[in-house]
Protein: Amino acid permease
Organism: Olivibacter oleidegradans
Amino acid sequence: MAHKLFRKKTVEQIQKDTYHQGSGGLAKVLGVKDLVSLGIAAIVGAGIFSTIGLASYNGGPAVSLLFVFTAIACVFTALSYAQFASTVPVSGSAYTYAYVAFGEIFAWIIGWALILEYAVSNMVVAISWSEYFVSMLKGFGIRLPLWLTTSSEGAYEAFHKLQQAGSEALSSSEKIAAAAYEQAPHLGNIALVCNLPAGLITILVTWLVYIGIKESRTASNIMVILKVSVVLFVIIGGAFYVKPANWSPFAPNGIQGILSGVAAVFFAFIGFDSISTTAEECKNPQRDLPRAMIYCLLICTVLYVLITLVLTGMVNYKELNVNDPLAFVFQSTGLDFMAGVISISSVIAITSALLVFQLGQPRIWMTMSRDGLLWKKFASIHPKYKTPGFATIIAGIVVTIPALFFRMDFFVDLTSVGTFFAFILVCGGVLYLDHQGISKQSKFRVPYVNGKYIVGLALLITVLGLFIYGKATIKEWVDLSAVELIEHKSLTIIFWLTWVILTVLSYKYNFSTLPVAGILVNLYLMTELGASNWIIFIGWLVIGLIIYFIYGYRKSKLNASHRALGDKL
């Protein structure tokens, strides 16, 4: 059984399966400019228009350094994605790459994790879009009922907190949520509260993705031009209102304050990997995908660092814990016109991020279905629109329902867990490709820097630095009992053990330094996420494994081909 769980597909086998689909292929219409546009559309979305405020509130102006650090982690990963994309130029992203490198069980796990990443990301984006949309309508004097623009989860919790602790214990946003609960029509004891705009925009984008990649590409390109224009507008216009005094103290809450924004900052970068799901719709995926990933990541990093410095320079970082920070800073400086322009533009711009993730999700399902791991209906291609029609509709339903009823903060950290997991496997997969010699057929390769001594030397320097400058951290560890270490520091322990193992393997096999760095940086960022998110993520994986063993393990086409080969022998 163990042998069957780790059965792998060759690059040739994947390409053969892709180009011999009875339902017809996808339309090849995307060039490098389109891919860069899709990448920017995915990256510059709710992260910069919403969660960047929370990160700045926790870390102060120094959060700009966290953007640089996170970007470096993403560059290591993007290079690994680029190599895989040039080696296996088909839809499926990290799922397909894991099938080649690690085998079927890992492919299923990563595919299942990507379902969570893409779906949850879109829930956050849809909810963020709704907040900007409601704010925009208020600017025109239109006010939607509170019970149609509030999550039922948030309204329920705020109302019960009001009953137990009184209005003094509620924040301003909780008071609004409690009012929504009170004003809503009731069906028995159930308040009919939902975030209607979030649901409607998801349905609209799903329809656009359903009718074709050309239409999606055109819409994305237009929205990206607008989006980047707004960001440049904020940077250039806001620079005249920066007060250097707001940058002091630069890191008011220290390293812990900066790192507490890891989930929010990393969420702002999620998206560059999503363009790998469109490989089958690229004119020249082996050349264009690697270029597009690097280009869009570099562009977005520069924009993020500049806009963070401008935001924290215009107002004190303590004021940035809001859902619409870009519009807020201009309102705070009396520039209501600019704030209005940003609100209107943001509504359109955030839609492009929703579009790209909604584009990627069904293509992963389609690829898993082709391999027999999901119901074959997910692999069906619409005869007219040349899109995975059924998978697109289901993806729309999966995102729409939670976006209607849940709060945004519940989803942000959860998105990052699944993404880090996928990134680590992709970086590890490149090491496998190099070790097996498969990389020789890659048209793009991660620049090779021999890690034989570098990985171990970096470990030694880090440990010495910790003993010299991290005495408080060491004391914290010493004061913990064995049970507390396991409960609170288990992920950090795994990080250090992984580094030691990679040091040994790098010395033995001459591993490339950059993929190893990608593994370590992503693993470290994972340790900064809350334990509750890990519990939910592990529960999600358990559900996925149950489905795999009930359906995918038996229905796998690779399993069927192996059985047929065994019968012949």
In short: The chain is about 75% helix and 0% strand. The first helix runs from residue 2 to 5.
